[in-house]
């Protein structure tokens, strides 16, 4: 079974951890079934493969370092190196370099650049400077973290989410981290989207998938940028795979982050129904074949879309794997 | 009075600290004399200006960062941020990023890249990437450290000391730090020396100087590379300034570092006489008008060169300032 997951940062990383747990269980079950048949058949056991297509719109250059917050959050989380309480960055982090940069009068002291994290950016920046791609740098970093899934950046090209406010345009990180998402949003812009192409393997993974999961990440600034990479949305709508979305909104509030502010900016209600409608049913030109909402949102309807309600709090891998199992069931209908 | 000092790293930095102390005392004395004349004369008090021309041959790119060990050692030392026991790097240093880079399988884990120090390299590397010169980056970094003297890199151009060994050529840092100066030296090469030019202000400072001091730094790999920048040696030999050298060898051993290994490689005796002879008397095509040696080396003679013996251990600024005072006296003969 081949599963593709569209993922942003913290929520996407937790979801992927559950997908990996589900895939491991599924693989073991498949293996066992294959072993029982092995006496008579020699066919290889089909593998359960998970490919994450990760948002690159948050990527930013600071202090000359190329920083990819969502890729790193997914990598650290799946590699067991993330700070669980803070959600982002490395466990046991220190902030010596950040303080020193501030002492030099650095202009980005609002950005949480940890010492451990910084080594990741150094390795990546050096590789990019040497002419390697973001995909190659990501693969190199993953040699250490062994996330247990395939991690692909949505695009290797320049692609950044910018926020147009009444006072001017700023990088998404500046709006989100520096200004805490407070400045009014006129619109989000994906800088580079006109010319960017999907990273190697992205479109093929979608085309070959049995199931595409749209993770419970921010629909506007995490999933939105992935779908804005030319070819990605098209590949999903044309894929033979079933496409199931998981709501990141539970009872009118985002599980994590500031999806409410982002949804308001694009005129969409902050609810499971609102986001389900934003994605839309594939049968009527949208993205999804099924929509998972939390039990508190049971009764949610989205035109043309089967909706299933179940607990969507990703407390641990077990709870999240149950969400994935439900999505698989919904896809099989 | 205008003093130019040729300086390398740790020894050069300590010497400069003493030069600064001497200059401060000299400036105060000059000021007092001027004040006594002020009732009748309105001439401005002449300032005592110290310009350090710092070796760039140790500069190296690691992890994509441009690292300038001698410039930083001088800057940290004069700015009060250096580690006094270790000699190089920052006081209160930590090594988180270095350990993380090693965890990524980095190839330069032998290099002491501290977290605090790293911020300096980040600021410099970003500025260079933006098209600024090493001189401009140095001036920017000095806005924080306020070394109290003018610090000029010998050159803004590519210029690196390489070591040719029987097994191949390596960067000076690799020979010195990684291999502890053990590999046999066939010769030292100054990569880029053919096309490099002196950094802005270097030749003018020499031309305008009243006194040029050749610091007690390694004559082969600290002073040598400065003199190898096209135009520098010529500017010194043609300068109206007196040129006095200070021996970094006391009683057949270098005060700091591995000058003995370097001198052997160029066939020069590791002694005050040997190094004095290497620099040579300006009167016979060499560099110096005077040579300061330690009291244990009293009796040292160098053809054509006045030699003065005095204690050359730079225990503190007072001891070092006394060396400078002796050099000034020697220059005035």
From TrEMBL, chains A, B:
Signal peptide: none annotated. InterPro entries: CofD, CofD-like_dom_sf, FbiA/CofD. Keywords: Magnesium, Transferase. GO terms for molecular function: LPPG:FO 2-phospho-L-lactate transferase activity; magnesium ion binding. This is 2-phospho-L-lactate transferase. The lineage of its organism: Bacteria, Bacillati, Actinomycetota, Actinomycetes, Micromonosporales. The gene is cofD_1.
């Amino acid at each position: 079974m081949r599963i593709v997951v569209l993922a942003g940062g913290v929520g996407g990383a937790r979801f992927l951890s559950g997908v990996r747990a589900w895939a491991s269980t599924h693989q073991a079950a498949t293996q066992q079934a294959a072993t029982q048949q092995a006496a008579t058949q020699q066919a290889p056991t089909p593998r359960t493969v998970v490919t994450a297509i990760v948002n690159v719109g948050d990527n930013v250059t600071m202090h000359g370092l190329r920083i990819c917050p969502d890729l790193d959050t997914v990598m650290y989380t799946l590699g067991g190196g993330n700070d669980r309480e803070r959600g982002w960055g490395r466990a046991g982090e220190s902030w010596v370099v950040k303080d020193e940069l501030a002492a030099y009068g650095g202009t980005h002291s609002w950005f949480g650049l940890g010492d451990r994290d910084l080594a990741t950016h150094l390795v990546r920046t050096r590789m990019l400077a040497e002419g390697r791609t973001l995909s190659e740098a990501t693969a190199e970093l993953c040699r250490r973290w062994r996330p247990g899934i395939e991690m692909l950046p949505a695009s290797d090209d320049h692609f950044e989410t910018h926020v147009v406010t009444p006072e001017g345009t700023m990088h998404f990180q500046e709006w989100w981290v520096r200004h805490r998402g407070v400045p009014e949003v006129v619109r989000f812009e994906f800088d580079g989207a006109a010319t960017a192409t999907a990273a190697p393997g992205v479109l093929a993974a979608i085309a070959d998938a049995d199931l595409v999961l749209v993770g419970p990440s921010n629909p506007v600034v995490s999933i939105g940028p992935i779908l804005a990479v030319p070819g990605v949305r098209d590949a999903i709508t044309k894929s033979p795979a079933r496409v199931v979305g998981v709501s990141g909104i539970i009872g009118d509030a985002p599980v994590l982050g500031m999806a409410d502010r982002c949804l308001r900016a694009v005129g969409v209600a902050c609810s499971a129904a609102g986001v389900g409608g934003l994605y839309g049913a594939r049968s009527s030109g949208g993205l999804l074949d099924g929509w998972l909402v939390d039990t508190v949102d049971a009764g949610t309807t989205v035109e043309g879309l089967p909706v299933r309600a179940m607990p969507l709090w990703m407390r641990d891998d077990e709870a999240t794997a149950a969400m994935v199992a439900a999505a698989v069931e919904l896809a099989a209908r």
